[in-house]
């Protein structure tokens, strides 16, 4: 039976509610927001500032909850919901940008963005779905948010203390509204069936945002480590911060057998609301832990301060409190392990005020480790049928499903790409940009090799999971060395790169004993061992020689993959041994591309937050955000293209070619992010040829990668759009370089916008068969 126009805006109940890439894109705003909150906590330890920050965090969290519920009810593949989510993302970024001065001069900005995020969303849905139960529900929600809007806006004009009172009341009412089903006096209650969410979708959204929050902890500690001298003590502190992040994430997913999706489908709709409440407490704990990680890494053996010790203990304490409420209120399980851990932390806190941060964090890590081991024996053991090799080679049931370990690993890419962008920002000279692109290639090739590993091997196998975590830590060390990789810390970057590939091979090759696939992994190990020589020798050479050797090493790694890692006197690897699962690798490429857009979103938002909220800088920030949104939109055009099907239907080299093309596009995004940060800082400053060429060069790199993707992967017959766009950029460049910095992004956005509309009208070609 055909669906009506209104029903077409809703999620099809017969289709699985997988997480869309628009939702992942939206979550990038949360990464920026959480970094803002951890910095705000760090700035002032007083109770007043802590309470203010808690209220602001609660408001931003409720915007995320609103977006998650919107994509649960509406189809995120339809233009109307997409516009709503992109609008909410922009409002969320403005909210986060105003956090440092939300109780100061930017209170109106924070309140206005928060009110707009909720009211515009619900009023738009109520109008588009008028007469439908979803529309009626949104009309009731708009009534609630309209009432609290008065408190938000009135409070923004008052001094800090009365503002805190009004905004606290507004937050409480916003949270009560959904909990009470948005009841409106004089109207009958909303039926329970109209308040339900699909458990599998909401559970996945909560899982995803929790992993992202833990990633923010890793990001904050990594940035702090990168700014220090990278000595052995601070490296130990960074490793401890990373270990605490991993323990927190591991505890979250234990005990085994608790499935949030099935629980939400089985219980009352209010349980899903309670789950959102408890996740806020856990994320608050992670934000405080991220703040304390900055103290830990920057001053591991510094002076003893009661405030620092309290901060290091408070983060895990809050997380465990939220975890206990989560287990009890959502799953109905008696929770004694997390409360016991809280009691232990509280009991030993007085004794830790005399310890340096590194010692305090070590004790906290031991408590979390004990809680983890106590959970390990709860719940059904995972079935481990088959031999060791069979378990390692077991194929995933849903190729499009990305494991939590893969998502967690991807967050290291945001840190690495932002480091490279900021490296470019320090010097727009050609030599520095060339060095930075080599570093991007190195970081990206680590990601590619890991993505292929999780495609060839079972990501649920503990051996591979431990390997992913180890690779992630090593990649974070690489990223930390990026600013001085062509200086004092070249050996750290090169050693981490070579070590990742060699250790991966030394783990995988023996594990495949008896399998014909062992030869493939052995070939890969041999080639990476050869390139490792170039990386390590280059680390001891001066700048120009280092560039040459590292560029040759990257070229060698890419070329060996293209030819299937051939080794003399060994038979060539059969094509079947080089194939990847198209659906999975396509999801991975798409995900890392969106992650690269996160660097653009994060750096432009930070620049906007620090530069001020005047009209010109707001226009510059809007241009940066629009550019990111257009790059995301154009990536999925023309309609009908499916990279997974193409990879499945063609030779293995096509997947390698797709990796090359994505790498070029990601390099373009990194360069664009560097330019965005600068033109947001001084949009109408003196003309800068280097800055303008950086902005246009980033757009050109992206267009080049996009064009090559169409040619090599999708068999585009007339790829005139990309070359024409490149000619337009080349023709306009002489005029742009003598104009104020803001002109370059305007030109770049217009070119990408024109390409996007042209791609939208293009019909997809059938895939090239092998």
TrEMBL record:
Membrane-spanning ranges: 21-38, 50-68, 80-103, 141-158, 164-182, 209-226, 232-253, 274-296, 308-328, 358-375, 428-447, 492-512, 524-541, 547-565, 592-609, 615-636, 657-680, 686-704, 724-757
- Does the record carry Membrane as a key word? yes
Keyword terms, alphabetized: Membrane, Transmembrane, Transmembrane helix
- Record keyword rRNA processing present: no
**InterPro entries on file:** Low_temperature_requirement_A (IPR010640)
Question: Protein name, please?
Answer: Low temperature requirement protein LtrA
